[in-house]
What we know:
By secondary structure, the chain is mainly alpha-helical. The chain contains 6 helices and 2 strands. α1 packs across α5 and α3 packs across α4.
Amino acid sequence: MDAVTRAVLVASRLLVSVSVRSLATVEDRVTLPQFRLLKVLSAHAGDNLVSVADRLGVNPSTAMRMVDRLIAAGLAERGTNPGNRRETELRLTDEGRGLVADVSAARRRRITAIVERLAPEQRTALVTALTAFTEAGGERPLPDDDGEPYPLGWSDGTAPLH
């Protein structure tokens, strides 16, 4: 069990490193938590502040400060919910969508470069092992398209299993 745990920890360190390096080109614009918020807005355009805070696992006041910074940076915007004019919707601007797409593409390229170094049978074993690992952790799989609907690992706004 220790060897498996150690291998997963090392792999997770590599994946975090890939994510951080993918953000390096935009680190002067957004922090990792802000990027996570951008990913939430990308997957859930039109959510209100309370929903966004729930998805991030933060207080609404914290989410509000993050949203305000992203709005000031031109990456997000507020709008009125057409179904309930008293409610404010949050969504990405074109610039915000572009930033998310660029960072996500960079991360995908880095992971692809690593996976390409594996032999075909290792790739198959990796898919099997990672699928079992994520299912054991309660994470839903990505759809078959190239989308990344979940913001850096929290599929339902809650922290992973302890």
